[in-house]
Please model this.
Amino acid sequence: MDRQGEIDRVRLWFTRFADHYEAGGAASYARIARELAADDDMVGLVATLPEGNKRQPNLLLGAVRFLDGPVDDWAGFKAWVVEHWEPVRKVVLERMTQTNEVRRCAALLPVLATLEGPLGLVEVGSSAGLCLYPDRYAYSYDGADPIGDSPLVLECATSGGVPVPDRVVEVAWRAGVDLNPLDVADEQDVRWLECLIWPGTNEAARRERLRAAAALVAAAGPPPIVAGDLMEVVADLVSRVPAGVTPVVFHGAVLTYLSPARRERFAALMGELPGHWVSYEGWPVLPAVAGARPPVATDLTIAVDGRVVAWAGEHGQSLTWA
Ligand SMILES: C[S@@+](CC[C@H](N)C(=O)[O-])C[C@H]1O[C@@H](n2cnc3c(N)ncnc32)[C@H](O)[C@@H]1O
Model:
């Protein structure tokens, strides 16, 4: 791509994220992303990063926070980033956007409960593995008494007649794969996950959940996550699910990192493997569930074996049955 094309793409990406942050209650990120998209110097700086995910707004903003830089106002942000570009660049090159949102388990639980157990969970793009433990958390739907016995209660608002289960699912086996598995016992990894949480209305509660889930998962022992590319590893993981246990491959906010051609190959592979496939992704991401546009624009689509069953808030805060 020529230089102007790259500049235009950076502008577009930051403008889109400004809208996304705004909708998600992250006002300061929205302002910074919008100003950045209009600032020739800063767009030029971001365009010096390798093409693709390294130019992701969330990665840059997370890197600045990781280095204790300011993310409250545009002028302070810009001056700091220009002055500290080398360390910012280093963090951006070393790290990835790996937001691990445990509350997605609240959106997934009623879906997983429709499948015959016990379940053998294979999470592709598992980050630190917090979503591999849906059986270790408790759940409160629409403020009702919690289901499950856990110090961490995940709350979720439902609509459309969600079949809320009366118990958590039985997980007999679990494994994950990630390009870069994060370690819940590593303070710097957990801090990085914290830095990926947007500032704003939901920040404190998301941080609290992250810390609580990381402690629970660390106490359960290191999650069995293979380092590698999901396309290369997933079939092997499914083949390791013990007999009598239902294999379930699942993922949340992951396939967006794959090219459209790779997403299609992944969907085809899911059709060939035994067991079930649960996807929790933005509706345009998966051709297999095309047409699954949610009633609420910011929601993600949950599909089982390529069939839409529900829509959910991107961080599991809400669930609408289809
Ligand atoms: C936004 S995070 C979501 C993490 C987790 N699924 C959740 O819901 O909290 C996306 C994760 O997908 C991983 N990822 C992206 N592309 C991948 C690939 N080709 N193979 C394996 N993991 C990948 C990233 O490293 C990252 O940890």
